[in-house]
Write a structure and sequence with these properties.
The structure holds two protein chains of two kinds.
Chain A (H helix, E strand, L loop, with lengths): L1 H22 L2 E5 L3 E2 L8 E8 L2 E9 L18 E9 L5 E7 L2 E2 L2 E2 L1 E8 L2 E10 L4 E9 L11 E7 L11 E5 L5 E6 L8 H9 L3 E9 L4 E10 L4 E8 L5 E7 L21 E6 L5 E6 L5 E9 L4 E9 L4 E11 L5 E8 L1 H9 L32 E2 L1 E9 L5 E18 L5 E19 L5 E7 L3 E3 L8 E6 L2 E6 L2 E5 L5 E2 L2 E2 L3 H5 L4 E8 L2 E7 L3 E9 L4
Parallel strand pairs in A: 29-34
Antiparallel strand pairs in A: 1-38, 2-38, 3-4, 4-5, 5-6, 7-8, 9-10, 10-11, 11-12, 13-14, 14-15, 15-16, 17-18, 18-19, 19-20, 21-22, 22-23, 23-24, 23-25, 26-27, 27-28, 28-29, 28-30, 31-32, 32-33, 33-35, 36-37, 37-38
Chain B lengths: L1 H18 L14 H5 L9 E6 H5 L2 E9 L4 E10 L7 H4 L7 E19 L8 E19 L8 E22 L4 E16 L3 E5 L6 E5 L4 E17 L1
Antiparallel strand pairs in B: 1-2, 1-10, 2-3, 3-4, 4-5, 5-6, 6-7, 7-10, 8-9
The chains are: A mainly beta, B mainly beta.
Amino acid sequence: MKKIILLLSLLLSFCSIVLNAQKNPIKETKGKEIRVKKKNLAFDFTNAVKIDNFYYVIGKKPRVELVSLLLPFYYYGRAYDSDFVIYKLDEKMNYKELAIIPAEYFDKNVESYTIYKLGDKLCALFYFNNRKHLKQYLFAQNVDIKTLKPDGKPYKIAETPITKKEKRIRCIFSVDVTEDFTKMIVTADRTKLALSRRARKAAASQKNHTFTYWLYNNNFELINSGKNIKLGKGNTKVIGQTFDNEGNLCVLGFEADSKSKNKKSTGEDEDYNQSKMVMKIIKPTGEETDLTFAKGEYFYSAMLKLNPHTGNVAVVGLLSSGKGGAKGIFTQQVNLSSGEVLTESVKLFGKDLVKEINTLKPAAGSKSKMKTEVRLSKKSKPSKNAEPDYIHNLVRIGACHYNDSNELVVVTQKYYTYTSTTVYYDSKGNPHTRTITYYVYSDIISFKLDEEGEIENFGYVFHYTQITFPGIYKDYSSLYTGEKLYLITTTEGGQVELNNKASRTYPFKEYKTYRRKRTFADYVHVTDSELLHIMATRRKVLFTLMSVKTDM
Amino acid sequence: MQRFLVLVVMLISSVSVYAQKPKPKSDGADNKDLSKYLDDGRIGNVSNLVRFRVGRAFSGYLGLSYERKFSRKFGLEGGAYYKVFKGNYVESESFPSIAYEQKLGSINGGTNFLIYPKLYISGKKINTGYFYGLRVLNFNYKADVVNNFYTMPNPIIQKDVKATATTLAITCGSHQHIASRFIFGLEMGYGLGWGTYKDLKYLQTDSSTGNQVLSSKGEDTKFSIDVFTIDISLGMLF
């Protein structure tokens, strides 16, 4: 009898696993672990490109080997990035080929940045800090897809000044490629530099934020460029940039309000309480349009999203309540080619919606952790008001998607920090305290907005991750395809139903593997419906493709 | 006078106009010539290095070594040193007692040759980075041999004994840029060595007189040693 019960329970558990696996809309395609020669191992991955059903994963290998274990006192730390490593994989994530693109020209070492797809080729980008000219140069080198070897001579495509005082300078440039891979934009923004305290002060006192840009076609012919373009009239911080296939460039920034000193930050999040937004649109002809909006409003975070079908750019911002949570969503749509503002709306959540969200419970069968809101620091405790009109801890916009009807789906996340202090005693009985700050990435809330920016409905996913270092902005990735929103975290994934209910996620088959501490473990976007999970150790690399199941 | 002044001003202005060179644009035709953008006054990835070894100098040897990288992984260093200063600084520890009652006193001059193949890990063209190596040192020197027992009134038993020795050490180390052309090296290693003293005489008690006299064995005295090395070096790339 016992045996029968045991067999039945085994059968049931197997069935539940199979059913769960079938329900999960995210398909895991796990390749075989690739053992690569140590000299070719990459420890940092920047991009993944899909061309003709092959995946090209771009990695960088450090110039200094980790042999420093032998000479620990002589270790300078991980030095600049060196050569590119390109892994070619097929659709089943099987390893096909490996190529090295050396970062060396004319007997000089240059630093690798990343590789993009441009035209029908890959384009490798390198930068070089010239201490004599006091400039940082950006070079582009075509890479042939068939041979995976450098094709032709490299080009210098951008330059920006550096100073003598700056010792270790990372890449100051930002590079983007259009959706159709025909144009490349390079912007140089010196605020990206890690400056000393004095230099930061000097930069903060600078009234105008300036940047320089270059727009190239896929033959590296310069279409347009602008030097020291001013953005905003005060102390401005760039949030993002986007551009369409025609080469219209749009840069969005927060302009700090000099009178906002009383509105102090309510947490460690640097995005708290930024004031009005400024936008600059630059056409390929060089014509500039300046827009300022959301005056008098304060934001936790904001982002830009281009609709490639209409050429419209959406600006989405989370409105600050000043009490540690968002009170609404600001949206604006601008036509990039004409510079015309199409819609602008400030929509508050209201008490009813906040109440509806706060009363949600995890879907049945979900194994989501219910630790949220349990341990809060004094700073971020919710107000005693029984019916707040803001969603507590909702401060970060992680993603924004356009659907075919020109409607927006905004994905936001609750984020907060708390500190834990423990007292321990040494052998002599002396007390010592240890304080740890925890960074909590909590529930993910998605809002579907109509064309006017009205909140139509929302989707909710219970989620909880806490880490002890403030390195990442969000701990999930979202995919939007076939009018459906999918969510992938480091251990689970699922579809987010925008039906004003909590959606459940399903743990990945390999979730334990993904949680392991590795030299590198992260997701890289490949297409709108595919994410690539890369995990690298000092000996092996493992690629897993997370794609949305189309047959469900 | 005024005409002359006007003429001078015109002449100067025309010269200054010619002196203004057109500035190359970043989108100009010269953006393919990377060499000028990479010219920062620092030496590039050259593979020749002349090195002064501080450890050798402490032992009383002066000389230089030359290293060339034949590939990104393999480099070979060769050096020649001459014993200028008298002393036994490193050798007295490296070359211990010769026999029960004898040991090396001081080295009075000689030569020292170095052959040092290296396997670089970082695989760069330039002679920098971490490496493993096999250091081969050949010694030819004249040495004073002293008595091992300090109670003896005259410690020197025999002067200018010819000796040869070869040491082999497996090393690991690193070369790092300290300026455009200069390299700072640090390495350590452990190994073995062996050598011979030619016609080394021993103190023996004369049975008839009862005095101690030096007598030859009639054959070379062989010895083996273990080697531990830490060396700092300064090099110049060219």
